[in-house]
Amino acid sequence: MAGGAAVVFTGLTAVPAGAAEGGVSFTRVKVNSGKPIVIGVKEEVEVPASGRMTTELTFKGVPMVHPYRGKLGKGEELWSALGGGDPEVVDPVKGVYDFAVAFSIHPRHAGLKNKDAGTWKTCARISLAGGGHDVDDENLPLQVKRATRLTVNASPEPVTKGKTLTVTGTVTRADWDKHTYQGYAGRTVSLQFRPAGASSYKTVKKARSNSKGALKTMVKATGTGTWRWTYHGNSTSGARSSSGDHVAVK
């Protein structure tokens, strides 16, 4: 993490020891632009955060913002590394600072399990001179979700206008317990089409994945364009679209 000191842990971390003190307030806290935090099985995810800190106390380092659950100051925290640049002084007399920081989550280093998907809370913390710290709940729910993936194949290619086009694919979801993607059964997935020359996709019909996450449906070929599958996500799984499969109609 650029700027500031990055602290790395290798599991769902316990809150650091040290007396929690008052005298610091955090406002305007935003995490990941309000979007869910979607995590796969291999790639580290870096999540931006920002806010305003007001304090007349002497602090050290940079503010930290990250997910937690349980009791504030005594529960679990979800992050692999924390970091950011020095806070920007807004009002030196009143002790107002704006900050931009980030935390990262590595699906292996963070010790994630499938049961961890869902709603977490947000805390902000700053270390104070003398060894104490101030930590506050920000009343900001964070959605932590398992990543999904989709594939698509439309055939035959090319196809005669008016003939049947068979579109297949798979929808899989990150398994944090096994560190792999598994077929996601029983999902309703949208088949979408973008005509040649158009800029956006429209849903043509929907299909449900089988026990192995496989998708299959048939449509009439009406014109040249690109087909894809889109899964819109749920409370524990991220939304995702497949790449497109371009089919010429003759």
TrEMBL record:
Superkingdom of source: Bacteria
Keyword tags: Signal
Signal peptide: 1-19
Protein name as catalogued: Calcium-binding protein
Organism encoding this protein: Streptomyces gougerotii
Lineage, uppermost ranks: Bacteria, Bacillati, Actinomycetota, Actinomycetes, Kitasatosporales
